[in-house]
Amino acid sequence: MTHADLPFRTETPPAAAAAAQRVGTWRIDPATDRMTCSETARALLGVPPDRPVDLELVLSGIDDADRGPTAQAIRRCIAGGDHCDVQFRVRRQPDVTHWVHMLGARNIDAAGTPYSLDGFVLDIDEDKRLQLALKLRENHFRSILDTAPEAMIVIDERGIIQFFSRAAERQFGYPAAEVVGTNIRVLMPEPDRGNHDAYLARYLATGDRHIIGIGRVVTARRKDGELFPMHLTIGEMQSEGRPYFTGFMRDLTEQQQTQARLHELQSELVHVSRLSAMGEMASALAHELNQPLSAISNYMKGSRRLLAGSIDPNAARIEAALDRASEQAIRAGQIIRRLRNFVLREASEKRVESLARLVEEAAALGLSGAGEQGVALRFHLDPACDLVHADRVQVQQILVNLFRNALEAMSLTERRELTVSSARSADDMVEIAVADTGHGFGADVPVKLFQPFYTTKDSGMGIGLSISRTIVETHGGRMWAGGNDAGGATFFFTLPAATIRETVNVAE
Amino acid sequence: MSQSSLVYVIDDDPAMRDSLDFLLGAAGFAVRLFENAEAFLGALPGLGAGCVLTDVRMPGTDGIELLRLLNAAGPNRLPVIVMTGHGDIPLAVEAMKLGALDFLEKPFEDERLVAVIETALKRNGGDPAPDHDDMRARLASLSQRELQVMKGLVTGQSNKLIARDYDISPRTVEVYRANVMTKMQAGNITDLVRFAMRAGLFDD
User: Is the per-residue pLDDT at A448 higher than 80?
Assistant: First the structure.
């Protein structure tokens, strides 16, 4: 039986000659496994031109990983009559392989016994490598998309989803398989849902960009019907003359929740600030008025003593009038005190709190925008004394106040560092220090620093530090200030330390 | 007027200084005025026997710091009476711990002022006050719960806070509070703090 690759050899046109380099023919005798191969087939299968060939020799030249499947495919073809169609790598040198594609079919005699297996072997190395490189790139691309926190969706010019990233699956609750091929409007609530096709048509007709390349916050719809805010950016690309649109989407739900929480904290703080500002005003008034009232009382009592020996007929009436005047002075003082006690003492809600949480939340509130100012924030909080017995909102008010003062003090300095540290101090107290690298106090800490209505700012009532100290004192702590090595100011205050046991009690 | 009846008044408020000068003068005491603790400390080496009546909240060296400085200077110092604003119970307690003889809340009754100064001038050195044992006996008569309530009261806590600390109702605290005032024979919280100091409640 002769073998039929002659046409390839005899053809002379260059295209055919080139093709001859890429296609070889072969035949296997199933009885002996002997093979006849064309010259090209020998070259492609990696067997020498002058040696008898059998199946075993061919198989031995195949890359280890592909040998088994190739042998099986050939055996199945001989035994069962399947078409042989297998791609494998031929090892040409220890570290060089070459991809080929083997195609074949068996011939049987009248009795149904296979007498030969004939076929082609094609050189597919270049295509295969290109294909693998593409596959690799696609895998890279896909893994990037899958890990990116932003969801990505590609649609065509009719709004049909072409690609739906892993993050999009998470964000919208749809598996990609369910939505790829459907219109993107299922991911939108009304009115966008009904209008999206028209948006696309208008853009394609006019080229007017409303969102492409701009980005904005829109409302999207999850599979379960829940609506959520997201930030959407859209890019456009052309592929084979058709436009495609790629949307990048960031779920803003969590961000908005964080902001809502911050908002809540802020309004609590504002409320308490007002209350304590009122309390502090009352307290300051009480203190300031107490002095003249006491002086009045002293003058009255002194006058009464001097009158005691007098023989003036009106002495008794004057004495009585002086007594009543002193009583009224004392009463005036009591009225202000009651106001002060009402506002300050009863408003306080002391619990076991985590200092780290107090500080972090207060930092979020008081230092918004600090990053833009280039302020470096450092926490050195000792976890061993994290728990304190404190009114959360009041203590955060102190911290926010100190942080804002620090930011102002550093607005004109080169170095901008804010450090919050904590350490256990004597008497079961925790000492908190807020240090900045601002302009500091100059030579000495002003003696009136903590007094009401003392301020160095153009705008400011001068009650922030005064309120802070009052709060610390109602907690049984102390507050003071000093300079630091960086030339800035450090404010210290102490709060009573709490133990785990107290936490348990509170939880009960 | 003998040297021993000199009262050294320290207050940053001019009207308070002048009115005290007037009142104490009318009550028969000799008075020397200082507008701050620094001025008093500067003059101290030349001062004779007497007693000190000082405001507790002052810019610069405050009343508490003054007591510390006097304590550091030596054992035989002048007796010190501090004047506090209302609600400065924690400061008053601290002053008493630092050896202040007594404290007065502004504004004060002249009889009490005179009585306290007279006691101070008699002492003029520092024997323990004679009624300490009596106060200890009164304190010992309190039940454990009454003692807890008293500690709350003298550290400036409200009934509500005391109630929460010991998990009892504010009404119950009021009952205990009344018992404490009766047993300690205190007319008001200021008295109670003073008695508590003398009975050694803050010594630990």
Answer: no
The DSSP element (H or E) to which A268 belongs, if any, is helix A253-307
Task: Say if CB A34 and CB A15 are below 8 A apart.
Answer: no
Whole-number pLDDT of residue A347: 54
pTM of the model: 0.44
User: Using the beta-carbon criterion (under 8 Å), do B106 and A448 form an inter-chain contact?
Assistant: no
CB-defined contacts A:B, below 8 A: 79
A290 touches chain B (CB under 8 A): yes
Q: Could you read off the pLDDT of B131-171 as tens digits, one per residue?
A: 677 788 888 888 888 888 888 888 777 787 888 888 888 88
Q: What is the pLDDT of residues B128-140, one digit of tens each?
A: 455 677 788 888 8
Q: 3-state secondary structure string, A336-357?
A: HHHHHHHHHCCCCCCEEEEHHH
Residue A302: closest C-alpha in chain B: B23
Of B22, B26, B87, the CB nearest to A337: B87
- How close, in Å, is residue A288 to chain B by CA atoms? 10
Contact A385, A430 (CB under 8 A): yes
Q: Say which residue, A2 or B55, is predicted with more confidence.
A: B55
Q: Do A290 and B155 touch (CB under 8 A)?
A: no
Q: pLDDT by residue (tens digit) across A348-372?
A: 677 888 898 888 888 877 776 565 5
Chain A contacts of B23, Cβ < 8 Å? 298-299, 301-302, 305
- Set of chain B residues whose Cβ sits within 8 Å of the Cβ of A306: 26
Closest CA to B56 of B113, B98, B114, B7: B98
**In which region does residue B36 sit, left (phi positive, over 0), alpha (psi from -120 to 50) or beta (all else)?**
beta
Token output for B158: 């409200």
* Cβ neighbours of residue A188 closer than 8 Å, sequence gap 6 or more: A196, A219, A220, A221
**Taking residues A90-108, what's their average pLDDT?**
89
pLDDT at A343: 58
Task: From A99, A105, A144, select the one nearest A122 (Cα to Cα).
Answer: A99
pLDDT at residue B204, rounded to an integer = 53
CB contacts, 8 Å: B107 with chain A: 290, 293-294, 297-298, 329-330, 333
Q: How far is the alpha carbon of B114 from chain A, nearest alpha carbon, in Å?
A: 11
- B23 pLDDT band, cuts 50/70/90, is very high
List chain B residues with CB under 8 Å of A283: 87
- pLDDT for B4 equals 52
Please tell me which of the candidates B18, B86, B158 has its beta carbon nearest to residue A286: B86
Residues in A 315-344 with any Cβ partner in B closer than 8 A:
329-330, 333, 337, 340-341
Q: DSSP string covering B146-196, please?
A: HHHHHHHHHTT--HHHHHHHHT--HHHHHHHHHHHHHHHT-SSHHHHHHHH
Instruction: Give B13's contacts in chain A (Cβ within 8 Å).
Output: 291, 295
* Among B199, B197, B195, B154, CA closest to B177: B154
Between helix A464-474 and helix A253-307 the angle, nearest 10°, is: 80
- Is the minimum CB–CB distance between A299 and chain B shorter than 8 Å? yes
Q: Does residue B59 have a cis peptide bond before it, meaning omega lies within 30 degrees of 0?
A: no
- For residue B145, give the 3-state DSSP assignment: helix
Q: Give the tokens for residue A482.
A: 């000093």
Most confident of A314-323, A325-334, A368-377, B33-42: B33-42
Is the Cβ–Cβ distance between A416 and A373 less than 8 Å? yes
Mutate to test the interface with A, among B33, B83, B106 (most CBs of A within 10 A): B106
More confident residue, A448 or A47: A47
Nearest to A295 among B19, B87, B161 (CB): B19
Min CA distance, A471 vs chain B (Å)? 13
